[in-house]
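Note on ligand handling. Small-molecule inputs were canonicalized before submission; formal charges were left as drawn, and no protonation-state enumeration was performed. Where a ligand contained multiple stereocentres, the stereochemistry in the source SMILES was retained. For copper (II) ion, this procedure yielded the string shown in the input block below.
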Amino acid sequence: MTLQSGWAKAGSGMTAVFGTVVNPGAKDVTLLGGSSPAAADVQIHSMVKQPDGSMKMTQKQGGLTVPAGGSAELTPGADHIMLVNLHSALVNGGDVSLVLRTADGANVEWTVPVRSFAGAEETYAPEDHR
Ligand SMILES: [Cu+2]
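Structure output:
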């Protein structure tokens, strides 16, 4: 599993990691969450339309499944990897490493650059955080 064109959004508190997750293997792989030295928790999030029409992110039920021989997009405003409770701010030009846990018990480690990004500010729905 590789993360192509991966990057993390510069920020503090919490931030997201984007890119294209590529699964070269013969079996579907599901990412459930993970850890990072930069944050208290790493979660898989999706954006869900609320009854009032706004979009809020929540933890993605069942994780992110990347099909065998295929890929999954992590993009602002859609599925993303969330770094929750950053220990310190991520600044433009730095990098951050993270380890994702798969449903079959493997760990996948990625290091991505940190970039400033002004668009797609996301609203967190903390009531869905468990
Ligand atoms: Cu999120």
